[in-house]
Amino acid sequence: MNLLPDVAKIMAEMQERFGDRLDAVRAERPNEVYFDAKMDLVAGFCADLYKNWDARLAGVFADDVCESEKVFHLYYLFALDAVHAFFILRVPVPAEKPEFTSLANAVPAVSWQEREIQDLFGVKLIGHPNPRRCALHDDWPDVHPLRKDFDLRTELPPFTGERHKLREVEGEGVFQVPVGPVHAGIIEPGHFRFSVAGEPVLYLQIRLFYTHKGTEKLFENLPVTHGVRLAESISGDSSFAHATAFCHALERVAGIEVPVRARVLRSVCLELERLYNHIGDIGAIATDVAFAVANMHAMRLKESVLRVNEQLTGNRLLRGMACPGGVRFDWDGAQIKALENLVAGLGPEFDSLIGLIEASSSTRDRLEGTGILTPEIARDLGVVGIAGRASGFNHDLRRDFPHAAYDRVNVQVPVYQAGDVEHRMQVRVDEVRESLALIRRFVADLPAGPLRVDLGELPAGRTALGYVEGWRGEIFHWIRTAPGNRLARCKVKDPSLQNWPALSHAILGNIIPDFPVVNKSFNLSYSGTDR
Amino acid sequence: MFEILRKSLATGVVTTRYPATPAEVSSQARGKPEIDFANWNDARPSAAICPTGAIACADENGMRTASLDLGRCIFCGLCAEVDTAIRMTSQCELATGHRETLKTIARYQLRSDGTHEKMLVSDAAKQPGHTRGTPGPGDRESFARLGSELKTRIHRVLGRSLHIREVDAGSCNGCEIEITGLNSPVYDIERFGIHFVASPRHADLLLVTGPVTRNMELALKKTYDAMSDPRLVVAVGACGCSGGIFGVNYASRGGVDQVIPVDVYIPGCPPNPHALLHGILTAIGRLDSAC
User: How many domains are contained in chain A?
Assistant: First the structure.
């Protein structure tokens, strides 16, 4: 295998440093390397990668192989952005003593993910600062849905009410404001509990997973072709990105290369998804500080993108376009013309919209310095994507791990340090302009050729990581295949899961009336988090 | 300020005249799949490829029962790729007050090679959208009339404009994107005197998306209970109508009508803003009989 040059070097150094404490090392793909070790090596392994290779722990997840191997597997996914590789540490947890040591004190970024493993697999967390229930609400019976002996269609007693004991903040004049799960706007459900003294927020506790609908378990019960459609419904605003990340994982298991025309069409669709979401968000941020006119223009522009999406893929949210091995629909001259017209018209329209917002001093006044997420906290919490890039996170999978057709272009990644609402909006503004430029470049040089290749029957018992930089941030789909073109496990990681805890920090000291705009500036997916 | 006004004037009116004019969907749009039931001779390939079970078939005693359920369909079009008897149309206005009218069931005689022949019964006749005097999809003129009469009707029945409370009971947020679009200047639902409101206490109509998750079931019931009569419930999207691709599982209770009574179902994944408008207007048409 043609390993990336630095990857082989780092693998060798890791082997030298940890010697026989590493049970096995294998490179499954040029940029995807697996290490096997015991639980007691995790902290050292992690520290070494962080210190020496500027790695970051991009995900922690589990898998149940108790039937065949009498263990659960924990997977620690490290992104080594500078060398463009993923290192994955696999650790066995004995089925008869299911417990694992928390890393959350050293790497707060994995706090929720560890708690989720505890809930869904029944593997007990040791040493976690807050090991209470997270993914399954407090009134759930003692079940662990992602264990293999749990049936998808198990009937559970109905929900009886929230019994989660929220953390109390005490002191003179301190009171609590509960919000949700049913919110005032047209948005997804979640519960926010503000502790305030006067207007400023002292503490915000976020309770999510109201939309948990058994998605990961469902993947294990569907043929992979149906899985693509399920992936489109993980987070509707990222339908194409999630479906493509899922397909990417399948293609990596099958060991096939997607034809170049399909890769370009994928990139164009990913940019269209970025465009309609970013433009919609910019409008929504304006509306949350009472600049409704800007939102009306933004919604009009967003609608124009959605209509072109429909012309290109038959669906306004780009659904139905993704398929393993390529894409489903080709574009004829008229469709490409529609795309070109959209991009040509959108450029000046968007500039004019941003001009309106920039000229409105009362709008800028509400955005500047509001909801600051410092680069330090962002790094500790592992904040990714647009929210990360507004707080110093200089990473983008399109540039660092080129997928789809991003190897054909130079993606400019905007990075700011200020971390306030204004800069989360500015990242979007820059990215909209970059998306338009990228689409122009892709369309100007649209390669001919086939649209898809057949994956054939997937080999069973193989693992692979699929990844896509969605508009919100990095999306991972990690799969383990089962016989008969099925999956034994599909781990879905939406950037929202990573970013939610950051909102609790960004809002501190801000006033409650600014919460909507701070929240919108992150615009995290509940469904993508809850699955 | 001047620039804001200048830009608004330069932009002009962008609002669609729907329903007075047809839904502005692209010819590429995938809407309702149509099955040529009379010439359908094998339901198995399309049933196998259908990700939500919208197309299903079951064999018993030499007979085959094949069905299409638009309340489950996500309009992916995979069935039309494997079966020449199925054709995707761009028709998106599919809302109905009766869940059963979204289902078409046909019975066939089974052949020895596994295909089928001779349709014995088809339970297809009812056109989705034709409910309690509400005009159906093909009936453009009367549907437009309904739109223009709407304001009077709302005033007569409710004595004020219609207020909608939206509840996401577990959706993927795809439906929310399109529902938000109703407030855009392009669809501008307020031209009918219809407003989205922040509280169920103010609402006449509950617009519900998602398969209802176990964690949202109680919240949905409480929201419904907080509304005063007369009230309407509209289930949105494949998931709202039937549970969609999620169906019923340990965390999902399935469609909205598993938890609260539903007056109108709007199929789609997600239904586009035209389809949503059509569904909401259909629901208001039902108010006469609801109270």
Answer: 3
Chain A residues in contact with B166 (beta carbon < 8 A):
186
- Other residues' Cβ atoms within 10 Å of the Cβ of residue B1: 7
Tell whether A160 is covered by a domain.
Answer: no
Chain A residue at shortest CA distance from B209: A188
The residue range of the domain holding A292 is: 215-530
Question: Is residue B149 over pLDDT 80?
Answer: no
* pLDDT at residue B126 is higher than 80: no
CA distance A140 to A171: 33
Neighbours of A21 (CB within 10 A): 12
Residue A210 contacts residue B213 (beta carbons within 8 Å): yes
Backbone angles phi, psi at A362, to 5 degrees: -70, -35
Half-sphere CA count of A346, side-chain side, radius 13 A: 30
Q: What average pLDDT does this structure show over B217-240? A: 94
Q: For position B288, what pLDDT does the model report?
A: 46
Q: How far apart are CA A303 and CA B224, in angstroms?
A: 31
Query: Both A192 and A289 in a single domain?
Result: no
A312 with A438, same domain: the answer is yes
Both B65 and B174 in one domain: the answer is no
Q: Which alpha helices (H) appear in A466-510, and where do they start and end?
A: 495-506
Q: Is residue B204 part of a domain?
A: yes
From B62, B87, B122, the end of a domain falls on B122
Residues B111 and B236 placed together within one structural domain of the fold: no
Residues of B in contact with A306 (CB under 8 A): 181
Q: Is the pLDDT of residue B131 over 60?
A: no
The domain boundary residue, chosen from B122, B157, B181: B122
Please check whether residues A228 and A203 belong to one and the same domain.
no
pLDDT digits (tens, 9 = 90+) for A371-421: 999 999 999 999 999 999 999 999 999 999 999 999 999 999 999 999 999
Q: Report how many Cβ contacts below 8 Å link chain A to chain B.
A: 198
The confidence band for B160, taking pLDDT boundaries of 50, 70 and 90, is low
Rounded to the nearest 5 degrees, what angle is found at the Cα of B90, between the Cα atoms of B92 and B240?
A: 35
**B180-220 per-position pLDDT tens digit:** 999 999 999 998 889 999 999 999 999 999 999 999 999 99
One-letter amino acid of B245: I
Is A84 within 8 Å of A61 (Cβ atoms)? no
Probe site for chain A from B172, B191, B245 (most A CB atoms < 10 A) = B172
DSSP assignment string, A392-423: T----HHHHS--TTGGGS-------S--SHHH
Asked whether A22 and A41 are in contact (CB, 8 A), the reply is yes
Domain that holds residue B260: 140-290
Backbone phi and psi for residue B24, each to the nearest 5 degrees, phi listed first? -90, 80
Residue B251 has pLDDT above 80, yes or no: yes
Burial class (CB in 10 A: 0-12, 13-18, 19+), A12: exposed
CATH number of the domain residue B156 falls in? 3.40.50.12280
Closest by Cβ to A299, choosing from B169, B185, B215: B185
Neighbours of B69 (CB within 10 A): 22
ipTM value > 0.90: yes
Closest Cα in chain B to A182: B167
**Residue type for position A121:** F
Instruction: Give the residues of chain A that fall short of pLDDT 50.
Output: none
Residue B143, pLDDT above cutoff 70: no
Cβ atoms of A234 and A188 within 8 Å: the answer is: no
Same-domain pairing of A399 and A449: yes
Contact B4 A356 (CB under 8 A): yes
Contact A111, A501 (CB under 8 A): yes
- The position carrying tokens 């469902």 is A218
On whether both A412 and A462 belong to a single domain, the answer is yes
CB-hemisphere CA count at 13 Å for A529?
24
Residue among B134, B190, B136, B135 at smallest CA distance from B163 = B190
pLDDT band at B125 (very low <50, low <70, confident <90, very high): very low
